[in-house]
Amino acid sequence: MNQEPAPPVDVSLGQFQKLIRDMYFEKDQTRGVEGTFMWLMEEVGELSSALRGGTHEERVGEFADVLAWLTTIANVAGVDLADAVNQKYGSGCPGCGQFLCVCDDAEKP
Amino acid sequence: MNQEPAPPVDVSLGQFQKLIRDMYFEKDQTRGVEGTFMWLMEEVGELSSALRGGTHEERVGEFADVLAWLTTIANVAGVDLADAVNQKYGSGCPGCGQFLCVCDDAEKP
To answer: Alpha-carbon dihedral of residues A52, A94, A81, B44, nearest 10 degrees?
Structure first.
C-alpha cells in the first residue's frame, strides 16, 4: 500500500533552460526583457513573503518560479546559464579561487 | 595554434547547489536568510543594469551571480532547487499543463 516517492530528477541547467524555452519562448520574446523583468520582480516578492511566513511547500514553489523567470530572461537575452555559472564558479570562488571560500565575510563575491 | 574552447559543462541544479553549499555554507548559515536576501537584491540590481547597458560578458556574469545567491538562500532555507523545479515544471506548464504553454498571456504562471 505504501508507494515509494519517485526519485528526484536532478535536471541540468541546460535542460531546464531548454524546457522553459520550449514552453514559453514565443511569448517571452514578444514581451521582451523589460516586461519579463517585472514578472521576475513579482516572483522575488512572493519568495520574500514565503521566506518570512510561508510553509516549506510554498517556499519550494516560489524558488521554482524565481528560477523559471530568471531563466526566461536569460533566454530573451541570449545567455546560457550553464555556461555562465561554469565560467564564474566552475574554477572555485571568483573572489579567492578556492573551492571552500576564504574571502573576508564582507567580500563574498 | 588555434585552441578549441573547452566544451561547455552543463552542470545539474543539484551539482551547482552542492558546489555553492560546499563553497559558502558556513558563512551563509551565519548570515541567515535576511542578510542573504539583501545580497541577492544587490545582484538583481546589477543584473538589471547589465541588461540595460552592459556587454554580453557582463550579463553572463550577473546571471551567474543572481543564480548563485538564489541558490545560497535555498541552501539556508533547506530547499532543493532541482526538486523544486521538477515539482513545478517537470510535468508541463503549471498553468495549462502543456509542454508548449497555451495560457493566456496575462496568466503566464
So the answer is: 40
Contact B51 A93 (CB under 8 A): no
Report how far residue A57's alpha carbon sits from residue A37's, in angstroms, rounded to the nearest whole number: 25
C-alpha dist (Å) from residue B37 to A11, A45, A91, B96: 25, 11, 25, 31
Full-model pTM: 0.90
ipTM score for this prediction: 0.90
Domain architecture of chain B: domains with CATH? 13-78 (1.10.287.1080)
Q: Which residues contact B6 (CB under 8 A, 6 or more apart)?
A: none
Buried-exposed string A40-61: b where 16+ CB fall within 10 A, e elsewhere? beebbebbbebbeebeeeebbb
**CB of A10 within 8 A of CB of B82?**
yes
pLDDT in tens, A52-102: 999 999 999 999 999 999 999 999 999 999 999 999 999 999 999 999 999
User: Which residues are A106's β-sheet partners?
Assistant: none
A77: Cα separation from own chain's centroid: 15
Q: How far is B6 from chain A (nearest CA, A)?
A: 11
CA distance A1 to chain B (A): 23
